[in-house]
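To: structure subgroup
Subject: Chain for Friday's discussion

All,

I'm putting the inputs and outputs inline so they're searchable in the archive.
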Amino acid sequence: MRKRVVVLGSTGSIGMAALDVIRRFPGQFKVVGLSAHRDGARLAAQAREFRPEAVCLTDESAAVEYGRTLAKATSVMLEGADGIETLAAWPSADLVLNAVVGLAGLPASVAALSHGKQLALANKESLVAAGRLLMRLAEEKDGVIIPVDSEHSAIWQCLAAAGRARPRRLILTASGGPFYGRRADELAAVGPEQALRHPTWSMGPKVTIDSATLMNKGFEVLEAAALFDMPLDRIDVLIHRQSAVHSLIELDDGALIAQLGAPDMRLPIAYALSYPERLPGDWPRLDLAELGALTFAKPKRGEFPCLDLAYQAGERGGGLPAALTGADEVAVDAFLTRRLAFSDIAPLLIKVAARCERLPGDTLADIIAAGEAGARTARELLKDYAPPGMEVSR
């Protein structure tokens, strides 16, 4: 039987890569649901190709604009935040791939796990903000969380290779982004065009900017702590410019197990879709002889304050990780729209964290409220920062 799949965020980079994998293996997978935020034209094209049972546009104005077009390609048209939760719990689905960007993806993760689905999770904010809640829910409802991020997929695969051995340490690799090695005073004038030029990966704009600040890696540390039940002080980050080693684990006897591969998201996506089997993918392969060398270095923490900030948020817990994710969405959007300098992203987030460090985070309502508080605080603080090339008027 074909595995029946819902792809949330199907018009983004991860969603499109997932559909490319599914397209290559029509005998293995059947798409039963697709969702997008506002890209109705692309969603309609996907719906015509894959003929899902249901589609959802979360932007209600886009749903009105494209509703008639989408209705011709599917049986059920959903819209809004409620619609994506309905799709995440779709009765015929075996697996839900959540590639929604930001905290907006959290309710869908909860819905999928609450209905006992396999959850292939690319929405890192779900675990950053609500890791304990989601892991507990998966255990209670017999749901499964399968990581899609290349780093967490790598750890998942390394743990499978280690068998019953418990890892002593997890090591996440980071490319360092486009500005690695640049002095802080050189970054004040960089614009979105430069920051979006990731040296090895092709990703969406939000993740690419977070990669440049290393906030993305900080969030991945918090993800790993939740997914693999590992204390933060036993999760390390190494700068690895070649992006060939996706992550490593260290065992008690000192052995290191690493997962290597080309920097192509189709590999971890395919593994998540087909787990526990592997698909014979024809995507690019890693040629170590051509690569020539693998280098590793500890990140200079002063150059990447967002990485330390993420560790601190994880240690303090409560609603602070959720607040930080909400604030980061605002800060990145402000940078991409030229309302905030790149060098001001970290200072803004540090101020938000100071104001939001005591927020509760026990329930889903707490977590959502904390995320909203972080976003609101970031918007309030934006007035204290001048757009690039301008001075703040006092």
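Points worth raising on Friday:
The chain has two domains: 3-147, 152-262+300-384.
The first helix runs from residue 13 to 24.

D.
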